[in-house]
Amino acid sequence: MSKSISNIVIIPDSYTTQKESFSVLYLLHGAGGDHTNWLTKVPAIKSYADQYNMIIVCPDGSPNSWYFDSPVDETMKYETYLSEELIDIIDKKYNTSTEKSGRAITGLSMGGHGAFYLAFKHQDIWGAAGSMSGGVDIRPFPNNWGLSERLGSYSENKANWEENTVINLVYKLKGDHLKLIFDCGTSDFFYGANQRLHEKLLERNIPHDYTERPGNHNWDYWSNSIKYHLLFFNDFFNL
Fold it and tell me: What is the end-to-end Cα distance of the chain in Å, rounded?
């Protein structure tokens, strides 16, 4: 995209002494946020990197990129950025596992959409993916979060919306080829979309961990949710 993009990389305390390569978790922020959100709002992720002995990368996805390559805006190519450029530079700069068995991605809200969107489309890159309160079906929100700037208006560009909403990408999944975890609070405006995704995965016999519990679309919920995701990914990395 011909610009500099900031990212935060959290390395565990063992990084300088361990010879084996490290697993990497890519942790995405939500709409209106940036790469500093997770570290600022949930500073415990620094200790989680030590606890689980993994590298955590917090990319910047701009306030409302939705982590895809926009079909209407040539300057917004965040799918290409994350799945090609960022992966490549992280693996070259740090002692990382370059296999999908050592790479996972998750995020909140817009980042939950982004994590599933990227992982569903690039199952050769990520072996596990998660979503916290994710916008896994964007079609009910044609006037929110700058989505029309990325996809064009829904009324005139329906195909763009249908092709770039996570719930319509389930067909790309095969069995347990990609390990999945997602959750949503029952008071969240994305709750219905997450229920629909869960039901669709059940219909297709796609194994996944799905949880719904009391909670809203806020950092109280996500600071709790990330703990379950880290346990899930830690188990995946240590298979």
Answer: 37
